[in-house]
Amino acid sequence: RGLLLQRAGLRGAPRWSASFLRKRGPWGGGAAAQADVAAELRPVLPVKVVLAISVLAVSCSGVLARTEHLRDVPALVVAGWRMALSAMALVAAAAWRRRGARARDRASEDAQEAKLRYFPAIASAGVLIALHFAFFYTALRLTSVLRATLLVCLVPIFVGLLGFISFPGSPASRPPARFWAGIALALIGVRFVVAGPGAQTAAAAGGRALLNVGDVFALMGAVAFAAYMRIGRVVRRHVPVRSYQLRVTAIAAGILMPAATLLHGGVGVALGALPWLALSSLLPQLVGQAGLDYVLFYLSPRVVSAAALMEPVCASLLAWAFLGEAVTRGQAVGSLIVLAAVALATSEG
Known about the structure:
Blueprint (H helix, E strand, L loop, with lengths): L1 H7 L8 H8 L6 H11 L5 H19 L9 H23 L3 H6 L2 H34 L2 H8 L2 H8 L14 H18 L6 H35 L5 H24 L9 H22 L5 H7 L3 H12 L6 H17 L4
Helix pairs in contact: 4-13, 4-15, 5-12, 5-13, 7-11, 7-12, 8-10, 8-11, 9-11, 9-14, 10-16
């Protein structure tokens, strides 16, 4: 086993790679599959650096959505355009990469078989990420941004609970005690962060019943994203991140755009909003979401979702820097608590 990994240049690869090679052969496909697996088992940047960049990019989503050009655009329309523009960019990149001899190798029988084999799981992931955005952006219309963010931060808890359920290709596993301790500490820190100015806006404007509806939508969004990460962990062991992101994003766009058309009568936006929609597609989706999918190749969903608890912290700092929103002392303390909690939850021993 060690000689095989050494000859393949995979020293330091994830611990599951040896069993993967035994089941699927040295590479599990043709020359194209060999190149993709080799490239991902030898990351250019440290995995946790990629994770930090991804969380920062995802945190830009709320700030971009609150710019004056997108403020009046329905939330579901913003979500639909975000996924549609991302899908178009990924299709263009895939078309460019199909040029030359390597592209002909990608059309091999092995590559086509792999796409068909994992398509049901990829389709399920696309539906789940579409539901996540639909629920979360709907929650933003029914409750405050801070409260919706707090409830979506419960994703790690649902990921941990889903760990008790056995998925195809992913046996059940009990999260370690340090994971739950880190999550509990992080939720305390997140509560400090989201308890700043504006926390009572929705309650004052919408009343108790409306706030409860928003809570339900935010929680459903958290559950959908937790299931998405669990499925993504399985699929990403066999499917390169580019292929995975392309199909998941296209499926989600195919769901969100028609839904936005039905609910809002169309998806048209002002010309001035298009650059901001493109930026929302580039940073939170193509850099942030794709980065999270990439690190799922190396890290468990529990670790990735725990690190994503830094999103409200980063969002608060970005709002202070670009929107002039003040950061209170409680939010600063909460940020430090979240950082310590993430270090605890993502520690390996």
